[in-house]
Amino acid sequence: MQNPIQIYQTQDGQTQVEVRFENETVWLSQAQMATLFGKDVRTINEHIKNVFDEGELEQHSTIRNFRIVRQEGKRQVNREIEHYDLDMIISVGYRVKSQQGVAFRRWATARLKEFLIKGYSLNQKRLQQNAVELEQALALIQKTAQSSELTLASGRGLVDIVSRYAQTFLWLQQYDEGLLSEPPTQQGGALPTVQEARTTLRNFKQQLIKRGEASELFGLERQEGLAAILGNLEQTVFGEPAYPSIEAKAAHLLYFIVKNHPFSDGNKRSGAFLFVDFLHRNGRLFNEDNQPVINDTGLAALTLLVAESDPK
């Protein structure tokens, strides 16, 4: 994306704002947000300050300075003006309760998608060529593995690893190319009620205690932590679900329980269990071949990665 600027116009045609696109997001200054949402700059500034004070967003990732030519009196001057990304624009729009926030988000998302598709098309031919070369190399390795000359167990083991994880290497290549796209998702997803989740965890706890793998402290709630997490997953932004798909709800359910520590003990195990339970409730725990979408090793690794990740 070569830093294009497009004009956003409200449906009534009364408001026009120049929108800058860069780094796969959009950027507006405080003055532009004031124009977009029909508020004064002071109000916008106060909301931005509150967003940072409450820890909702971080300054280093949401602010960017752009050099703008401004007319000041009879002079044209260049000044560095702070601009804010789409996350901040959406947050401010939500706080000022402006319906323009919904329309602008949809418009900006559509434009960003167009730019990303164009960039993807330019790189797709190169990626496909690289993928073909990698697949050919893997085929050669697999053929070599059957050679009578390759007798060392270690050599055969290496070949087996490479051939078995060919798709993994292709995914990693796509990531390096910046072309790893999100998999398709299924909209919706019914979350358990607080009581259902508590009952499920209580039964899980009893099984663990019988096996000597937990104590009475396991799963004891700290205040209403579990209820708060389930409530957050049901929240909306501009009238639309904040977590619209089964996949988004499942991922954030695991993340929030592991990172927010709603229980005195057993947060990682509780988070992993409720993650699997949620997928089961929504018919997504098994694929078309009746195989689990994530095995026990993968779930353990994912849970530990979440636990060790930097929440910032």
UniProtKB/TrEMBL annotation:
This is Fic/DOC family protein. The keyword Coiled coil applies. Transmembrane segments: none annotated. Keywords: Coiled coil. Residues 117-144 form a coiled coil. Residues 196-312 form the Fido domain. Signal peptide: none annotated. It comes from Cricetibacter osteomyelitidis.
